[in-house]
Amino acid sequence: MAKSIYFVAGEASADNHGAALMESLRRLDVDLRFFGRGGPRMKAIAGENFKNWIDEAAVVGLWEVIKRYGYFQKQFRATLSEISESKPNAIVLIDYPGFNLRLARALRRQAPAPKIIYYISPQVWAWNRGRIKQMARCLDLMLCIFPFEADLYNQSGLRTIFVGHPMIERLRAQKIDAERDPNLIGLFPGSRSREVRKIFPILREAARKLRERKRNLRFEVAAASEQLASEIRDMSDATSHLNPVPSSREEGRARGDLQFISIKVGETAGLMQRAFAGIVASGSATLEATYFRMPFVLVYKVSWLTYFAARLVVKVKYLGMPNVLADKEVVPEFIQHRAKPRAVAKAVARLIDNPAARAQMAFEFDSIVDKLGEGGASERAAEAIDKEITR
Questions:
Q1: Staple 4 to which of 88, 196, 281, 347, CB 3.0 to 4.6 Å?
Q2: 206: which residues sit within 8 A by CB, 6+ positions away?
Q3: 192 versus 90: which is more confidently predicted?
Q4: How close are the terminal C-alpha atoms of the chain, in Å?
Q5: Tell me: the pLDDT tens digits for 340-350?
Q6: For residues 363 and 357, what is the distance between their CA atoms, to the nearest angstrom?
Q7: Are residues 137 and 108 in contact, defined by beta-carbon separation less than 8 angstroms?
Q8: Could you report the per-residue pLDDT of 35-77, keeping only the tens digit for each?
Q9: Which residues pair with 334 in a beta bridge?
Q10: pLDDT, mean of residues 13-24
């Protein structure tokens, strides 16, 4: 009989990584069947028995999860039911720790318990290392994408394989032959609606302040989807910041001429290679910017409830993964109350005007990217999963 795998991915980046993993698994076994829930890319490969729930599942912050607690309870029960009905040979959980770690515990209590494999480790090393021992009791195999994670998990008794970062091959395929435009600044407000609503206004005002000091600057916003592009336009129209029609030259100057901001959908990689500098929301985009050697500053803002809850448990010095990997602040971080447009604009201006600062950041980026592996993460992960379900 054909073997099957049930996947759970809850965010856009996990959908990309899950789709690449599925393609690699299919090359190993063309008859392999896929079930579960993720995003549009995974569904396109898996077919009709796969649920695209990314738009509803991808939420950020403690308060946002609390407000939608009923929805997640319903989806949790539905997931357990789907797994029970499909009887897969293995469960592959991709990141998304709030849902997936709880699911792993529930599945481990079943008899017989299916193989449970975690791909892209939740960052428990940052906020609760005590959970590593709990994970060792629930999981059969961990496939991690950062080298230091393998040492942590193997010490706990959880069998772990470092496969490298799956973004490497994807980004390598998106490289273009482009020179950086000294007048172009990239704005990357995130891939989720709630974070865009928090972060884009900061980026917009920072852009206005940069335009005040250098009038020939242009700005492009990388929208992760048409829906987010529409939301960004709506926010901008509400404050007359994007494509305004000033009644006078003085009014246009007062508004900061933010009609020089344009919105691009699906062009993140290209923009990171053309922009002279950027402002990037914390998340996977920071590693993408690092890979493309775009000088940038990091911005992040969440609800105050989420922020204070995170401050109580987070044990690492930095939020941005490039800084975590370097164990120092390579990229300036502007988090929560520090995420002020004037301060952000000043840091970006330094990257624009100071060749030595740009060169030093690019030098540090080379060392960080080297730690992510040489590519082939999806293939290595697929081989490990295939071996696990045929044992």
A1: 88
A2: 279, 341, 342, 344, 345, 348
A3: 90
A4: 15
A5: 999 999 999 99
A6: 10
A7: yes
A8: 999 999 999 999 998 999 988 876 766 666 777 788 889 999 9
A9: 299
A10: 93
Q: What is the pTM of this model?
A: 0.78
10 Å Cβ neighbour count for 28? Answer: 13
Please enumerate in sequence order all residues whose Cβ is within 8 A of that of 12, keeping only pairs 6 or more positions apart, or say none: 39, 54, 58, 191, 192, 224
Under 8 Å between Cβ of 224 and 188:
no
The angle formed by the CA atoms of residues 103, 106 and 110, to the nearest 5 degrees, is: 130
Q: Could you tell me the two tokens for 290?
A: 């690092």
pLDDT confidence tier of residue 257, bands split at 50, 70 and 90: very low
* Ramachandran region, residue 36 (left: φ > 0; alpha: ψ -120 to 50; beta: rest): left
Contact 211, 205 (CB under 8 A): no
Measured between alpha carbons, how far is 160 from 179 in angstroms, rounded to an integer? 41
What is the C-alpha separation between 31 and 178, in angstroms, rounded?
A: 41
Percent of the chain with pLDDT over 90: 63
As a whole number of angstroms, the distance between CA 295 and CA 314 comes to 26
The mean pLDDT value for 264-273 works out to 95
Calpha distance 270→100 (Å, rounded) = 33
CA 338 to CA 43: how far, in whole Å?
A: 39
